[in-house]
């Protein structure tokens, strides 16, 4: 039988063909290929609890509905980014961002639907006609602007705002319980007031964890009305901020114990030195480093940590 030694394997033809289509196409292919094989990148357990929404401009966008898993993924962020880049064969991810929707990838059909929806919204907004009285008020507001083009743009912006307000009132939007802004019928507060309220709540949680870093959800909710997600977000932020003030090769014992209590949710009487050292090594990538710092082997760190 005649042998065709000059035939090339499909495993090498496909990458070469994709490469020949250009750098942009090859990069897009690698991103989509990584998304499709997410379970092979991070393992089945992590893949079941997370979904890649998009990889764009070095950002790995993940949808993780469970707060505990978000915490875990954030802690192992550097390792996941490294695995993603290794699997793709190039540096496609530099940071991880969590999103609130599982799918935000846009193909041509989605773009077309988005354009149609935008067109419908514009038509709905245009239903409200500006009355002569409203037009006179707009002219009074803009009369001090000397530049004609700028005055027209400001007037047009005010018109659009009035149309939007009229549309919202038709859709049963009501006044915010805290301010005069309009908010959707299913909400009591407008976005700004909700954001301020959320910040106040998180500041209270932060103050409580600063005094009782080991406190868990059941204890915190006795004094603060909050969700597990609120506590997790604050705890992650506090762990990262505290870790950045410490160096793994030179740290204060009190700060180290507080960091471990925050991270492990353990009271001081349950802490042991081996546990503290293990946790500090686990968080080493989040901690501050000097210019001369060299990566530490776990065995060397644990051996010298108690000295």
Describe the sheet with the most strands.
Answer: 3 strands, mixed
Give the N-terminus to C-terminus distance in angstroms.
Answer: 72 Å
Main sheet: which strands, in order across?
1-2-3
Strands, count: 5
Taking all Cα atoms into account, the compactness measure Rg is 28 Å
| Number of DSSP helical runs | 15
Strand content: 5-15%
Helices and strands in order:
Elements: H1 10-20, H2 23-36, H3 38-42, H4 44-48, E1 51-56, E2 58-63, H5 67-75, H6 77-88, E3 93-98, H7 108-126, H8 132-142, H9 148-170, E4 174-175, E5 182-183, H10 191-211, H11 217-220, H12 228-244, H13 253-264, H14 273-282, H15 298-305
Parallel strand pairs: 2-3
Antiparallel strand pairs: 1-2, 4-5
Helix pairs in contact: 5-12, 8-9, 10-12, 12-13, 13-14, 14-15
Describe the fold and architecture.
It is built from 15 helices and five strands. The chain has three domains: 10-98, 2-Layer Sandwich (GMP Synthetase, Chain A, domain 3), CATH 3.30.300; 108-171, no CATH class; 193-305, no CATH class. It has 307 residues and is mainly α. Helices cover 59% and strands 7% of the residues. The strands form two sheets. Strands 1-2-3 form a three-stranded mixed β-sheet. Strands 4-5 form a two-stranded antiparallel ribbon.
